[in-house]
Design brief:
The protein is mostly helical. It has twelve helices and no strands.
Length: 230
C-alpha cells in the first residue's frame, strides 16, 4: 500500500518536476553569478522554498537590502498564498503531524496539483498529499543545487532565465484548464487580473487582483458547488 501511494504521488508530481528542475537551475545560476555558492542555493531552497521570492531575493541580498525591506518585499510577493491556502483548510484539518509540512510546502504548483481534492481511492489522503508536497520540494532543492554547480562549470549569459517562472505558471494554468470541468474559476482569475492590471498597473495589481478573485469566488461558491454536484 505504501509503495503504491509513493508511486501514485510521484506520477502526480511529474509535471512539477519538469518545471522545478528548470526553474531551480535558473535560480542556482543567477545566485552563483551574484557571488553566492552552492550552500546558499541549498539553504534558500530548503528553508525559503519560494520560487519567485528567491529570484527577487538575489537582488535583495546582492544589493544589501535591510531586514525591514526584505520582510515587506517577501510579504508582498508571497501574499497570494494567504488567499488560495484558505481553500485547503478543511483538507489539511486532520493531517496531524504532517500538517506543518503540508502548510510549508504549499507552493503555487503544489496547490495546482492538490486543489481539486482528488486522491487515489486506496491511499491515505494526507499521506498522498504529503508525498506530492515532499517530491516537489526535493525537485526544487535538486534544481537549485544543480544550477549552482552548473554555474561554476559552464559559465554563460543568464539573461532571460527569470522568465522561466512565468512559463511554469502558464503551464500550470493550461493543465488546470484542460483537466477541470468548470472553467469559471479560471475565467474569474483571468478577468480579475486583467481588470486590476489596467486599474493599478503592473507594479501594484497582484494584491488587488487576489482580493477581487477571492471575493468573486466566495460569492459564486454556492453556484459552483451545485454545478459540481449536478
Amino acid at each position: 500500500m505504501l509503495r503504491r501511494t509513493i508511486r501514485q504521488a510521484f506520477v502526480k508530481s511529474l509535471p512539477v518536476m519538469a518545471g522545478y528542475l528548470v526553474l531551480g537551475i535558473g535560480f542556482g545560476i543567477l545566485l552563483r553569478n551574484a557571488g553566492y555558492g552552492v550552500l546558499w542555493a541549498f539553504a534558500m531552497a530548503a528553508a525559503m522554498y519560494a520560487g519567485s521570492m528567491q529570484y527577487v531575493g538575489i537582488g535583495l541580498i546582492a544589493g544589501g537590502a535591510s531586514v525591514l525591506m526584505t520582510a515587506l518585499t517577501t510579504f508582498m510577493v508571497n501574499a497570494r498564498h494567504l488567499f488560495y491556502s484558505i481553500s485547503m483548510i478543511d483538507r489539511y484539518r486532520d493531517a496531524g503531524r504532517l500538517k506543518p509540512c503540508l502548510i510549508f510546502g504549499l507552493t503555487d504548483e503544489t496547490y495546482s496539483l492538490l486543489c481539486d481534492g482528488q486522491t487515489p481511492p486506496d491511499a491515505d489522503p494526507n499521506l498522498f498529499r504529503f508525498l506530492v508536497t515532499l517530491f516537489n520540494h526535493c525537485y526544487w532543492i535538486a534544481g537549485c543545487v544543480a544550477g549552482s554547480l552548473i554555474g561554476t562549470l559552464l559559465p554563460f549569459s543568464s539573461a532571460g532565465i527569470e522568465f522561466s517562472m512565468t512559463t511554469l505558471f502558464v503551464a500550470s494554468f493550461t493543465e488546470q484548464w484542460i483537466t477541470a470541468g468548470d472553467h469559471l474559476p479560471a475565467l474569474t482569475g483571468l478577468g480579475s487580473s486583467l481588470l486590476c492590471l489596467l486599474i493599478f498597473g503592473p507594479e501594484r495589481f497582484l494584491i488587488p487582483s487576489m482580493l477581487l478573485i477571492t471575493g468573486v469566488l466566495s460569492i459564486l461558491r454556492g453556484r459552483m458547488e451545485r454545478r459540481k454536484a449536478a
